[in-house]
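Project outcomes to date are best conveyed with an example. Our students and postdoctoral researchers have been running inverse folding experiments weekly, and each run begins with a structure described purely in tokens. The record below, which covers 461 residues, was selected by the lab manager from last quarter's runs and is presented without edits.
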């Protein structure tokens, strides 16, 4: 089979990163190898995001560029996948006739056969979104890599490129229909993977040398609620899955994302205390501090209820690192509503947050709301929020100075070393002192910066 080159560009969230990994692996069976230069590729895949207008614009401008490239390389194939593909479907092909294949978020496992059908039948759009979608099993093919201290093993894949931390998708889609969000329309109804498939994948990763796994879904708290995931059909919750995954031999660290606060149960809160390798770090998107706006967003919790859950988390894990998502300028948001978001920031003092200006998304209820906030006001509010968040992040990071933190080494080089604490903070340190990437070491924190910490390996502990 003649070797062909594919180039994949991923936009957006971890879910898309993961889907790109699935598409890349499936192509190896069709004579493709991955290339790093779009201009040399026989196949270009854009795995797209439509969570905000800006994300969609980026895709369309890259497709504009590829139109010119394809004029000089007519045999090049262009495939658009991900949420813009799902959202736009045939409209995208009409607008961008140089695209050969538009595939939706539930069709990525069929990329190979679909490309072959394009060769025979010409350009295609395949974006069916099924309510009874059964997520196929996926076992990543990783190079064998053993962390630890036997020199010989270190000569396999160089440590600096091996990923010791991996994402594992546990579910797809969402049933919450927050009024600003496209996910239910682009990823469909909530579907949970079978627990045995997830456990098998995590075992495969750990056997290949992966030390840390993050369980991934749009709303992991509702795992196993909409379809049977346990072999015997018995009820099986996200906390059950956490316990089983955490007991996999050799798994050093466990994380999960993303959670909707309305589905955060006491059982799940207790998991942070009871599940031995579950990291003391939690991303809990609140979006706004105003009950009026939370109601218009259809988030189904109040600011007080959110603060109550944060208080409970601190009761079980006092030093848990909390991060969140914030939208400013949601339709109808008044100065007072925004002030309540700032009050909530002061009350929780998040270690960090992802904050964005509201933008209309096709098909969402909020896009039909008429009291839109002026763009200038949105920008002002975002700047105010981010300035205060940066101040708080620096203060929270300074709390680690003098402490010894457990760090998973990600990189060791002559120019220094880098790793991540169990609270998900990036740490830079002078050298690895005989350790290698993949090792988990104690690091004494000596300096706190805005977005990272500095330390030195502490061999005394
Ligand atoms: S819970 Fe998250 S993914 Fe689901 S609709 Fe709301 S914002 Fe979107």
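After processing, the design step wrote out the following sequence:
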């Amino acid at each position: 089979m003649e070797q062909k080159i594919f180039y994949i560009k991923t936009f957006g969230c971890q879910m898309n990163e993961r889907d790109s990994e699935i598409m890349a692996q499936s192509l190896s069976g069709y004579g493709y190898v991955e290339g790093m230069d779009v201009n040399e590729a026989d196949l270009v895949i854009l795995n797209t995001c439509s969570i905000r207008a800006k994300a969609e614009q980026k895709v369309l401008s890259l497709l504009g560029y590829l139109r010119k490239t394809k004029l000089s390389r007519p045999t090049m194939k262009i495939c658009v996948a991900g949420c813009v593909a799902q959202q736009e479907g045939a409209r995208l092909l009409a607008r961008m006739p140089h695209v050969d294949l538009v595939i939706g978020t539930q069709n990525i496992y069929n990329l190979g056969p679909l490309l072959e059908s394009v060769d025979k039948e010409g350009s295609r759009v395949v974006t069916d979104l099924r309510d009874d979608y059964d997520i196929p099993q996926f076992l990543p093919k990783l190079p064998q890599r053993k962390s630890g201290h036997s020199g010989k093993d270190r000569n396999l894949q160089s440590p600096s490129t091996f990923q010791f931390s991996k994402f594992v998708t546990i579910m797809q889609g969402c049933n919450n229909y927050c009024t600003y969000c496209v996910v239910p329309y682009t990823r469909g109804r909530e579907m949970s993977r079978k627990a045995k498939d997830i456990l098998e994948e995590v075992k495969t990763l750990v056997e290949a040398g992966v030390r840390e796994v993050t369980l991934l879904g749009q709303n992991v708290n509702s795992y196993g609620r909409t379809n049977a995931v346990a072999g015997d059909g018995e009820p099986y919750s996200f906390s059950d899955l956490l316990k089983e995954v955490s007991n996999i031999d050799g798994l050093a660290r466990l994380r999960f994302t993303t959670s909707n606060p309305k589905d955060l149960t006491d059982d799940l809160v207790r998991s942070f205390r009871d599940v031995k390798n579950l990291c003391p770090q939690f991303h809990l998107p609140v979006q706004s501090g105003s009950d009026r706006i939370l109601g218009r967003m259809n988030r189904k919790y109040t600011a007080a209820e959110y603060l109550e859950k944060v208080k409970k988390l601190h009761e079980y894990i006092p030093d848990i690192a909390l991060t969140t998502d914030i939208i400013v300028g949601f339709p109808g948001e008044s100065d007072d509503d925004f002030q309540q978001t700032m009050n909530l920031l002061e009350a929780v003092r998040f270690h960090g947050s992802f904050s964005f200006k509201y933008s209309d998304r096709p098909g969402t209820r909020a896009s039909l709301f008429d009291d839109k906030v002026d763009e200038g006001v949105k920008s002002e509010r975002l700047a105010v929020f981010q300035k205060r968040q940066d101040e708080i992040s620096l203060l929270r990071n300074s709390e680690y100075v003098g402490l010894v933190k457990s760090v998973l080494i990600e990189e060791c080089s002559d120019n220094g070393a880098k790793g991540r604490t169990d609270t998900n903070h990036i740490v830079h340190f002078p050298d690895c002192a005989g350790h290698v990437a993949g090792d988990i070491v104690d690091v004494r924190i000596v300096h706190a910066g805005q977005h990272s910490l500095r330390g030195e390996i502490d061999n005394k502990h």
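The chain has four domains: 4-126, 163-279, 287-399, 404-457. The first helix runs from residue 14 to 27. The training component of this project remains on track.
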